[in-house]
Amino acid sequence: MSFIPHDSLICPIDDLPLQYRDGSLSCPSGHQYDIGKPGYANLLSVQHKRSKAPGDSKDMVRARTAFLAKGYYEPIANLLAQLLERIAGDELTVVDAGCGEGYNLEAIDSTTGKQLHLVGFDISKWAIQRAARRCAATWLVASNKRVPLADKSADVVLDMFGFPDFDSFQRVLKTNGRLFCVTPAAQHLIELRKIIYPHVKQTSSRDYPVPFTLVSRETLAYGLTLAQQDLDNLLAMTPHLYRAPKEGLARLKNLKQLEITVDVNIDELQLHS
What pTM did the predictor assign? Predict the structure, then answer.
């Protein structure tokens, strides 16, 4: 799929506008970024990397793709698309911060009736390489700390189980723009957590800084029955794989299937000037 340039892209080094020409992006200072196959730009500068290959590994991306392909999180994407329909305007620029392999942007684009200009970025190049094969969007390797978009260029920012940088989101959102945060609620994956941890911590609610105000909170809860391979994939796409003790992971591995609860909050926030 060909790269789709967005007119609000900026250089991650000096914040100058990027122009797309002859298969690469460049700024007036001469910084140049090649377009990788299958159609994405790597705008994560070396000084903002914490490792040689930051973000999700190939195996984590492969596991998440396999899990999401079965529609287990489709109700979340569908509800999010419904909430986007309530926003005024027929044309929206929607930015998915930490988009992973692009599942949510593709699902939203296929279900909403609005004309969406999609931008998805993730710190993992393996995730973005897979996302760029999904749907027509501007796909970028980038981080929340250094979002390569101009000030007040986005109508909507999505933060799906991510690590939000509210200062960056505030900068790129238009006045009265919307931020949607999807976070685990109290019972999310509770059955799995009780198996792999000796003590289950309570899920804390998220506080939001000024000038964001909470417009609405939707809670979505439903059950799933997962076979062993699905459990392996789910575990591989969460921090639990690295946080859980070996004994807990062994207990989970012995199960042929498990009924689990998906329980999430979708918070809609508005940015005020």
Answer: 0.95
